[in-house]
Amino acid sequence: MRIVTLCSIIATLFLYHPATGAEVHQLTPANWDELIPAGKEVDAIYGDYVLRNDILTAVIANPTPTRNANLTIREVGGCVLDLTRHDSNNDQLGCFYPTAQQYSFTNPESINLVDGGEGVAIHMTSLKNEDGSLARLVYSLADGDQTLRVITQYANTSDETITLRLQDSIRADSPFVLGGNKNSFWANDQWFRQAYGVWTQEREIKRTGSGGRILEYPTNDGNSSFELEPKQHEVFLRELIPAGSLLELKSIFNSLNKFSQFQVSLKTFDQDGVIGNALLTIKQGEETIGDIRTNTQGLCQFSLEPGKYTAIVNAAGRPPQELALDVREAFNLGIELNQAGYLQGKVTDGQGRPIYAKLSFQGLKDTATPNFAPKQNAVFAENLFYATRGKVDHPLLPGSYRVFISHGPEFNAAVQDVVIQEGETTELNVSLKQVIDSDGWISADFHTHSSPSGDNTTDQFGRILTLLAENIEYSPATEHQRIDSFSPILKQLKAEHLMGTVPGMELTGRELPVNHQNAFPLIHKPRTQDGGGPTIEDNPVTQIKKLKRWDNDANKIVQEDHPTLMQIWRDKDRDNQADGGFREMLNYMDTMEVHPPQSIFQVPEELPPTAKSREPVMFYWMQLLNKGYRIPGVVNSDCHYNNHDSGYLRNYILSPTDNPGRIKTGNIVSACKQGNIVMTNGPFLKVKVRGEKRAFAWPGDDLVSLSGKVKVDISVQCPNWFDINRVQIFLNGRTASDLNYTRRNNAKMFPATSVTRFSETFELSLTEDTHIIVATLREGLEMGPVQGDRWGVLEPAAVANPIFVDIDGNGFEFNNDNLGIDIDAK
User: Fold this and answer.
1) Less Cβ crowding at N or C end of the chain, within 10 Å?
2) CA–CA distance from 12 to each of 7, 140, 368, 752 (Å)?
3) Which of 111, 82, 275, 106 is nearest to 171 (CA)?
4) Containing H/E element for 164?
5) Within a 10 A sphere around the Cβ of 163, how many other Cβ atoms?
6) Which H or E element spans position 302?
7) Model confidence over 366-397: pLDDT tens digits?
């Protein structure tokens, strides 16, 4: 690098551009709608900065100490947070970190906005490092620029020579694929139609670090380090480039490298018209040059260096087609593809009303099971298609398929075999009948995720589609590290009447795995840091207290997520030495996750308590119940992708209304705190305990029976796609052989053809205050293909929260039974 002044670099860059309309702004409520780009990865908030010209928009995060994008993309002050061309308007960038976080840009007072007519720029200065170095960062843009110029001036304020390393880093997560060649780097997401590139004129680019996310800039000798003399500074320039495809990006690389190239315009069509979203992959010999998808008019455009290439075209419902390209000049080419076969139809409920539904495809005979899209996609993902308001319209390769159509476990599923012919439409009209009588109970999932969480890139629109297709009737937004809301998407879908929701969050601290808590409802402050939510604490006790008291101690649910209960109870550092754990956390939990529900049947005969595993979580939960910690259990999907994850676990909550659009969150909060909850991965389990003088109790309730005699009413309903064959009653966490009922030993109790697979009343004589838990299972059998390969292999199971029976009228007294395992052992 040569030593030059920063001002001279910027002046030179702007010299070649006429006076333009490039702009620089700080985001405010007044200009937000005008300036903010679209795309599922937009993380901008008020106070961030926008650079834009006639081609692209870039969002630069405000350099403050607390500026985080989400759970995993943190300390983003001064970084490029959102970036897209206007013609695609589709931000998919996680973050571009100039200097790879070697310097901290956390001083908002260092910001200087430059609008000189020739172009615009943002200047900022980092904090000084211990070695006396600091970095001055400049982003510049003029009209006509296809690249955002990123300039770093490294300054040595010390009296000693120091060694520095030229590095940047990028977060462009799956399904992005990263690569590079000589002086260029790229990240390509062909499905979500966005690519990002880095180019530098003077150095090569080398990928290092986890996943190749760290970019180093070595000279020809491979050295990316340089020495900086005292009181000297040096400048490094690179170009950050957004594009709608890898081929478009490589066309820009060629222009920057001044390589000769010719424009190629392609159009895909069949006998019925143009074909949009076709994927064109260009190869030269064995080397893949890049790919691009056609737009809604079937068109795509890019440039190639002169030479011979192979184009491979893949379009939904059609076999791939390969053709040779001889690029000697610019040309237009039409590519005619085979006609697709189509599956069209409607999914309705038993009354003929269209419903959201999940369609799962399996190839039959020689037909491959389809893989429509990545698991992060909305509407169709992997081998699934989600019917919006019951509409089915999707291209398929000719062949034979088995289709499983479902709408959650309250509805019968349908299975249809279809044959798809090229150029023909196959009808699929299905009526799914609601056979489960869930009157008085609504289904809820209190733990889901999508791209705003930062630990996945799943389309949040798809998250709502999957919840609706699974007939989840209430679900708060629980993205990591930010308060968010599902309401805008439900409103967009006009589906507010189908699912109740409320803003919430998951707060994920650093002491893992115990420091995860969900909370709802919370006050959402859109477009602000963390949505107005609390920040994490290293100490789990401090964090859960903070969350409990948030919003002026407003009434809310604080749910402990997937806890390692023995770490909380006895062993905070998980070294198998009792140290008191984080036991105080239990005082602030309204509910805790205790899935999987099948684990209640896995009570160990002998087990030393360990903080290194969650299992057997339900056993530990019942031990804590016996010690007086009356914390209701919940099971949730914790889904991160738009495949079968949504709805595979759910809770049934006692509710005064069965209309999702009329659910009041206050009623949900009260029912959850009381424990009016049945946990399930499918079976609808209903439990009621009756005492004297017509007194009765639901799960979570108290019941006084001075005689000690109670009647336990148990019913289990299942649709046509799974079954149960065992019902067990637990008394104070213990099983008894005379309270275990199986189809093998009690066949008449388990009708095989009825929706109601079990309906019995049992009389119990209790000799002490007793909490009664009822569970059901399909022992040795599976949920089946409706729930996919991962969750379909699980046994159907449901567990009702305990009903507390007081036999002396002095209030419920817990018996402190350790169930044979001493969790207080030293």
Assistant:
1) C
2) 9, 12, 57, 82
3) 82
4) strand 162-165
5) 10
6) strand 299-304
7) 999 999 999 999 999 999 999 999 999 999 99
DSSP H/E element including 623: helix 617-626
User: Structural domains in the chain?
Assistant: 6-252 (2.70.98), 268-336 (2.60.40.1120), 341-432 (2.60.40.10), 435-680 (3.20.20.140), 682-812 (2.60.40.10)
Q: Name the residue with tokens 């379009």.
A: 315
Q: DSSP secondary structure string, 494-526?
A: T-TTT-B---BEEEE-SSTTT-EEEEES----T
Tokens standing for 538? 């290293």
Backbone angles phi, psi at 476, to 5 degrees: -75, 155
The C-alpha angle with vertex 472 and arms to 468 and 476, in degrees rounded to 5, equals 100
For the chain, what is the radius of gyration of the CA atoms? Answer: 30
- Give the total residue count for the chain: 826
Cβ neighbors of 391 (< 8 A, separation 6 or more) are 346, 354
Distance, CA of 826 to CA of 823 (rounded, Å):
9
Q: Are 649 and 635 in contact (CB under 8 A)?
A: yes
Closest CA to 359 of 422, 402, 396, 410: 402
Cis, bond preceding 513 (omega within 30 deg of 0): yes
Quickly count helices (H) and strands (E) in the chain.
11, 52
> Which two three-digit tokens encode residue 111?
């910001």
286: which residues sit within 8 A by CB, 6+ positions away? none
**Which residues is 419 bridged to in the sheet?**
400
| Other Cβ atoms closer than 10 A to 498 | 20
What tokens does 322 get?
A: 């390969």
pLDDT at 824: 84
DSSP code for 585: G
Looking at residue 607, the DSSP 8-state letter turns out to be -
Give the separation between CA 745 and CA 751, rounded to whole angstroms: 13
Place of tokens 């076709």: 278
pLDDT digits (tens, 9 = 90+) for 792-822: 999 999 999 999 999 999 999 999 999 988 8
pLDDT of residue 6: 52
Burial of residue 64 (number of CB atoms within 10 Å: 0-12, 13-18, 19+) = middle
Question: How much is the pLDDT for 608?
Answer: 66
Which tokens in the block code for residue 51?
């650079």
What pTM value is reported for the model? Answer: 0.95
Distance between CA 419 and CA 673 in Å, rounded?
A: 51
**What residues of the chain score a pLDDT lower than 70?**
1-20, 605-608, 826
Determine the straight-line distance between the first and last CA of the chain, rounded to whole angstroms: 63
pLDDT the model gives residue 512: 82
Q: Any alpha helices (H) in 675-812, and if so which ranges?
A: 788-791
**Region of 536 on the Ramachandran plot (φ > 0 left; ψ -120 to 50 alpha; else beta):** beta
CA 418 – CA 428 distance, rounded (Å): 8
Q: Supply the pLDDT for residue 776.
A: 98
Q: Which residues are within 8 A (CB) of 564 and not within 5 positions of it... i.e. 6 or more apart?
A: 513, 514, 574, 611, 612, 613, 614
The DSSP-derived string for 106-159 is --GGG-EEEE-SS-EEEEEEPPPPTTSEEEEEEEEE-TT-SSEEEEEEEEE-SS
In three-state form (DSSP H/G/I as H, E/B as E, the rest C), the secondary structure along 53-118 is CCCEEEEECCCCCCCCCCCCCCCCCCCEEEEEECCCCCCCCCEEEEHHHCCCCCCHHHCEEEECCC
| DSSP 8-state class, residue 338 | P
d(CA 549, CA 544): 9
**Residues 103, 78: Cα–Cα separation, whole Å:** 10
Kind and range of the H or E element at 543?
helix 540-548
**What whole-number distance in Å separates Cα of residue 416 and Cα of residue 52?**
52
Classify the C-alpha dihedral 553-557-562-566 as positive or negative: positive
